[in-house]
Design a protein that fits this description.
Layout lengths: L1 H35 L5 E4 L2 E2 L5 E2 L2 E5 L8 E5 L2 E7 L2 E8 L2 E3 L3 E3 L2 E7 L7 E13 L3 E13 L4 E16 L4 E16 L10 E13 L3 E15 L2 E13 L4 E9 L1 E3 L4 E2 L3 E12 L5 E13 L5 E16 L2 E17 L5 E12 L5 E12 L12 E13 L2 E9 L10 E6 L2 H11 L4 H12 L2 E3 L2 E5 L1
Antiparallel strand pairs: 1-4, 2-3, 3-6, 4-5, 5-8, 6-7, 7-10, 8-9, 9-11, 10-11, 11-12, 12-13, 13-14, 14-15, 15-16, 16-17, 17-18, 17-19, 18-21, 19-20, 21-22, 22-23, 23-24, 24-25, 25-26, 26-27, 27-28, 28-29, 29-31, 30-31
């Protein structure tokens, strides 16, 4: 009889505690929050506890804007479930619309936390899923899945894994749109309680496709690319690789791309030179005068971290063709091209210059050397490297060498004629017959074009064995 009474007493006590928890639980939780955390920091509206001990509220507001922290927001219909399993504690959190700092928005999310054991509740495995993640109107992503090992006592995350079905970045000022599909990423470790700039971070991201759309570059498609990055303070050193890159406007198709940029995330600027490597590719411009050829083993250095930007590179070019409307003018089976260029700092008027040297590989190796200077201008002081500007004051110098003789060309375009693409070109040869013979021997010029060019030279002013003619 006493044993039965004990069982009934325990059962009655459990029922009383259970009923008190359901009825007075919201009041107890509100009191505990007000004692441990200020009421101004967390406010719960419509707090209830269900018979299944699910804690829910119609609205939750949080505000931690003090002591250097800047975090506030609101969550609609948050829910919390806590259950005990043989392996540890299992916590489930879900919410409707979540808004943070008036910038970040999630239409809903679900999060799970499994503790390492029954006694160790500060360490465990965290996972989160949300259908959409939006930062103002500049960034949006969908179908995000996140998982990580977490230590709540030190706010450390390890083996952070995440997948994103697609993401997009909109730059309204420059009218650029970037979209990426099927993103998979991994972050080795990070502490949420420390400034990320003093932590050694290792990040890996891969994606199936990426697209860039802008008024200047039109569409750029990238397939199968990956990013590996490590930080040194606020500077992130990265290695970006891609299988292929296709630009619709300029007709570039590149394969085996490797780029090594370094970016300061505080200023969002490049911090040092960018190394670029391209295994092979092709370029083909079909509008107006056609230019096409194949690229092999391109290596370049780009400097975007200084006020005066520059580019230096070398590559092998094969099957180069240059057309004038329907007539093929120049055909070069193989050449080695070295090029360098620079543009001055951003201003209403920017000076640009470029130099190149092409070694034409035939029976006898010859070279074509040139340099060009020009001026870009715009009323708004925009960067002419990224925006379309007015081209003017172009000066062009060319030199072709063959067996000790040379042909030089000097071209110019005045400010009022550059928009009409009208050039004044002067060609001078040191030995016209030998230069013509060299062009014929190397089969660089179309035979018809060579005859017309030789005839034009012969009609020019004689200068010893050479000629000088203006076009």
């Amino acid at each position: 009889m006493r044993f039965l009474k004990a069982i009934l007493f325990i059962t009655l006590s459990f029922c009383l505690i259970y009923g008190i928890t359901i009825i007075l639980g919201p009041t107890i939780i509100g009191f505990a929050l007000s004692r441990s955390i200020s009421e101004q920091q967390i406010r719960l509206t419509g707090l209830t506890i269900s018979p299944k001990l699910q804690i829910s509220a119609s609205r939750a507001e949080f505000d931690f804007r003090d002591n250097g922290r800047f975090l506030y927001g609101v969550a609609r219909a948050p829910k919390l479930n806590i259950s005990l399993t043989t392996n540890g504690w299992f916590v489930k959190v879900s919410s409707g619309l979540l808004q943070v700092n008036d910038m970040i928005s999630l239409p809903s999310f679900k999060a799970d936390f499994r503790s390492a054991s029954v006694t160790n509740i500060s360490a465990g495995q965290l996972s989160l899923r949300t259908p959409k993640f939006v930062v103002e109107e500049d960034f949006a992503s969908s179908e995000i899945i996140f998982s990580s090992s977490v230590d709540l006592s030190s706010l450390r995350l390890r083996d952070v894994m995440f997948t994103v079905q697609n993401a997009s970045i909109l730059d309204e000022q420059n009218e650029h749109i970037v979209s990426v599909d099927m993103i998979v990423g991994r972050l080795a470790k990070i502490s949420l309680g420390q400034d990320w700039r003093i932590q050694p971070l290792e990040l890996e991201i891969s994606a199936e496709t990426a697209k860039l759309e802008s008024d200047r570059f039109k569409k750029i498609n990238i397939h199968s690319f990956s990013l590996k990055a490590q930080n040194d303070g606020s500077v992130v050193n990265a290695v970006l690789t891609a299988d292929t890159l296709l630009t619709e406007k300029n007709g570039f198709y590149l394969k085996g791309i490797r780029v090594q940029p370094s970016i300061d995330l505080i200023s969002l600027r490049f911090s040092k030179e960018i190394l670029i490597q391209i295994a092979e590719g092709r370029f083909e411009r079909t509008k107006a005068n056609k230019i096409s050829g194949n690229i092999k083993a391109l290596e370049a250095v780009m400097g975007l971290h200084l006020p005066e930007r520059f580019l230096e590179g070398v590559s092998n070019i094969t099957d180069l063709e240059i057309w004038n409307k329907q007539l093929p003018l120049i055909t070069i089976p193989e050449l080695e091209l070295g090029i360098s260029g620079s543009i001055s700092e951003i201003d209403k008027i920017q000076q640009a210059s470029a130099k190149f040297k092409a070694l034409i590989k035939r029976e006898s190796e010859t070279s074509l050397i040139g340099d060009v200077t020009s001026q870009f201008s715009n009323a708004g002081g925009q960067d002419c490297l990224m925006e379309t500007c007015v081209l003017s004051d172009v000066l062009l110098n060319l030199k072709y060498e063959f067996e000790g003789e040379q042909a030089t060309g000097q071209g110019s375009c005045s400010s009022d004629k550059c928009l009409e693409k009208i050039f004044a070109l002067t060609v001078e040869t040191s030995n016209t017959p030998k230069i013509v013979m060299g062009l014929k021997k190397q089969k660089i010029l179309n035979p018809l074009a060579l005859v017309l060019f030789a005839g034009a030279l012969m009609q020019g002013q004689e200068t010893g064995f050479g000629h000088k003619v203006e076009f």
